[in-house]
Specification:
The complex is a heterodimer of chains A (234) and B (230). By secondary structure, chain A is mainly α. Chain A has 10 helices and no strands. The two termini of chain B are 31 Å apart. Classes of the chains: A mainly alpha (234), B mainly alpha (230).
Chain lengths: 234, 230
């Protein structure tokens, strides 16, 4: 109950800040922009370069989902670092919500929009057919991934500059969503350990229960290890 | 000497914050992507990669650096130290250019066997990095947190990046080269392809002027809005 009261009040507080409001709604604009691009780009590429981009749609969809959830995670990570610098997180940690409650509360600011946008992206962009149930699984993975990114930034960086460095480095994770395309065995093997690879796998193999299971295990492993590490260092 | 010490201290700070390590990872990532491209396509893709990432890294990082130093009270100390605001900003620009040059050179050397004009290439990386870092200093004034800074960079990035597409269009769009980012991209592409000496000299002089004017403006804004907080 305390969690939900805090969550409601904090959400109101967050939406009062025009910067956070824009950053949280920015992925919607991004999806709109990609929709426009994918109306005009495929025919141009076929006529000018004889290049059929439609065969790469699963990768593009996965890349967009990874980008949106990564962005939500980064925004939340920066928000938490600002709150740590302003001693707000310390203040909340002595309220009934506690430090863990604060963490869950803030990470859900990343996870919830990531979940919504990851449902909206395949439906709006319409890049090939993805079953509704799979869209739901992808959205769940995406929301866990956004929390992972938020946690990596918050628990890994002890100041704003390091947070920016982490954000820059974490953007490289997106490469793993496309690793199959490079036909490099070693890169594919490394990618198995990273969440973006499994988001692509779920998009590409909608019928495979084992892939969905592995994807969830990898995502949850990352999440739990990071939570454990955070609680231990605290 | 003062300036040199400031540059060395900034480079040490950036190294401690993991700038060099993260750019090793990013360089490897680009090398993997570029290795897939045929040599003919690489001549276009490589300058675009160098222009879009290592050259503009200053814009991304300078916001956090200034905000952190503001929070730590470094900027307040600046007022009573012999280091001038101009030297403080130049040290930031040069130290971030060092990272940009290192990453850009590594990506270029390791991904292409073709000969390029190294003088033009390095000039272009340094001048582009300077422009974007100085824009970062200007944008930073009035920002209270990193999210605010990131949001404020978006319209600037659009204003600087969108005109770059004019290079693909008709020669009638050449006047858009007055936008510093377009001039920088033309110079960068010139290092990889054919460019006349007078065009490269003109672009270099123009970028030097743009850097100088932006530097003067950045010093003024920095003193008014960040040091003395008007």
């Amino acid at each position: 109950m305390i969690f939900f009261t805090h969550y409601r009040n904090d959400s109101r507080q967050l939406f009062r800040d025009p910067v956070m409001r824009i950053l949280i709604f920015a992925p919607l604009l991004m999806i709109g922009l990609f929709k426009i691009i994918f109306i005009f780009l495929p025919p141009i590429l076929i006529s000018k370069l004889s290049f059929d981009i439609t065969q790469y749609y699963p990768y593009i969809l996965s890349g967009i989902v990874v980008m949106i959830s990564g962005m939500m995670g980064i925004v939340t990570g920066f928000l938490m670092i600002d709150e740590r610098d302003g001693n707000i997180s310390e203040l909340i940690s002595v309220t009934p919500l506690g430090q863990s409650g604060y963490l869950i509360n803030r990470l859900s600011f990343a996870a919830f929009p990531a979940f919504i946008y990851s449902i909206a992206a395949p439906l709006i962009l319409d890049l090939g057919t993805v079953p509704i149930l799979n869209i739901f699984f992808i959205s769940m993975l995406s929301s866990i991934y956004s929390a992972i990114i938020g946690l990596l930034i918050y628990s890994g960086a002890d100041n704003k500059v390091k947070a920016l460095t982490y954000a820059k480095g974490l953007n490289s994770f997106a490469l793993f969503a496309f690793s199959d395309l490079f036909l490099l065995r070693w890169l594919t093997v490394i990618s198995w350990a990273f969440p973006p690879y499994w988001i692509t796998m779920v998009v590409k193999n909608p019928q495979s229960v084992s892939i969905i299971l592995i994807a969830f295990i990898i995502h949850l492993l990352w999440f739990l290890i990071l939570i454990f590490r955070y609680l231990k260092t605290r | 000497m003062r300036l040199l010490n400031a540059i060395i201290s900034d480079i040490r700070f950036q190294s401690k914050q993991g700038f060099y390590l993260v750019y090793v990872i990013i360089t490897v990532m680009y090398l993997i992507i570029l290795s897939l491209l045929p040599e003919s396509f690489l001549r276009i893709a490589l300058p675009l990669v160098v222009f879009s990432d290592p050259s503009v890294l200053g814009l991304f990082f300078i916001g956090g650096i200034i905000m952190l130093e503001k929070g730590q009270g470094v900027i307040q100390v600046l007022v009573v130290s012999p280091l001038t605001t101009g030297e403080y900003i130049i040290a930031k620009v040069i130290s971030l250019s060092v990272v940009a040059v290192a990453a850009a050179s590594a990506i270029t050397i390791l991904s292409s066997s073709e000969t390029i004009n190294w003088f033009l290439f390095l000039t272009s990386v340094v001048l582009t990095s300077g422009i974007f870092t100085l824009f970062g200093v200007v944008i930073n004034a009035g920002c209270n947190n990193v999210n605010q800074y990131i949001l404020k960079t978006i319209p600037y990035m659009l204003l600087l990046v969108l005109p770059c597409f004019s290079i693909l269009g008709s020669p009638l769009l050449y006047p858009l080269t007055l936008v510093p980012s377009v001039a920088a991209l033309r110079l960068m592409l010139g290092a990889f392809t054919q460019i006349t000496w007078y065009e490269s000299a003109g672009l270099t002089l123009y970028l030097l002027l743009a850097n100088y004017l932006l530097y003067r403006y950045a010093v003024k804004i920095f003193e008014n809005k960040i040091v003395f907080q008007d």
